Amino acid sequence: MEALALERKAEQNRELRERLAQLKKERNAIILAHYYQRDEIQEVADFRGDSFLLAQKAAQTDADVIVFCGVHFMGESAKILAPNKVVLVPDERAGCPMADMVNPIGLRELKAKHPNAKVVTYINSSADVKAETDICCTSANAVQVVNSVDADEVIWCPDKNLGHYVQQHTDKKMIIWEGYCNTHDMLTVKDVYEMRAKYPNAQFVVHPECRPEVVELADFVGSTTGILKYCRESSHQEFIVGTEDGTGYQLRVDSPDKTFHFASKFLVCPNMKVNNLKKVVKALETMQPQIHVPQDVADKARLSLERMLLVK
Ligand code: 13P
Ligand code: SF4
Questions:
Q1: 51 C-alpha to center of ligand 2: Å?
Q2: Which of 67, 173, 189, 312 is the most exposed place for a label (fewest CB within 10 A)?
Q3: Atom of ligand 1 at shortest distance to CA of 51?
Q4: Which of 240, 263, 243, 242 is nearest to 191 (CA)?
Q5: Given 2.60.120.560, 3.40.50.2300, 3.40.50.10800, 3.40.50.920, which CATH number is that of 2-95+272-286?
């Protein structure tokens, strides 16, 4: 019975992939997928990446339509960077709880208290918050971005864990917002000790959205792309991975002979998993749901994203 259900699912996915290829041609569309998406989406993506690489790709593509498989703020950033393209998301309900932890009113109040500080905002934020921001960053460039700003004081939002990590690598005084990623923040020191005891030869690699006391235990700390690169280039064969489990797809593509153990069964972002292949096909069929950002907000937010893309 199980085998039959699997065969039916495989057949369904074959049909969906064929339909997708046809629609992509008709619409001149590109599929961008974050590394945390389901395997069935990463398999059909024209480009897989972390938040930084996907924003860069959206800004550069010649396609008329971008199907953004990730969470809402990522589609929004793509639309801001490529305002003349149609940006589709497979499911508008795929949000990011951390992005919702900061709002423009609260941020404006904090800015009023620290008038000499520059605002550095993690890309995991709404367009309205980006519009109140001097420069955005992702986990791949957070330290470089903070060090690049022309001020001694930085208001950092919304991820306190990433903020704490950046504070260890900069002399700037950081005023840190209290947000966090529900998924990465779940990983505990106890989980890591248990995994280390179980896999004593494995290297522990971790995303800086995890808690500081967990990050402290790592052999390597880096963004999703940083983790992928480290594991690909390392001479080690076995890894305990402290980031979202969708990353397993690219880890296995890059290093089929290495072994990866996810550090906790809770490292699954339910928002990222709202999307599936069927919804990707439907989005291109119906050209819905589309991302729209009011022009005045987009124009302000674009500056903060474009400044980020220029930081080396
Ligand atoms: P990166 O894509 O920058 O690694 O961020 C991780 C994340 O949680 C995205 O939502
Ligand atoms: Fe947001 Fe965390 Fe999910 Fe990324 S993994 S989309 S930060 S909740």
A1: 11
A2: 312
A3: 2
A4: 263
A5: 3.40.50.10800
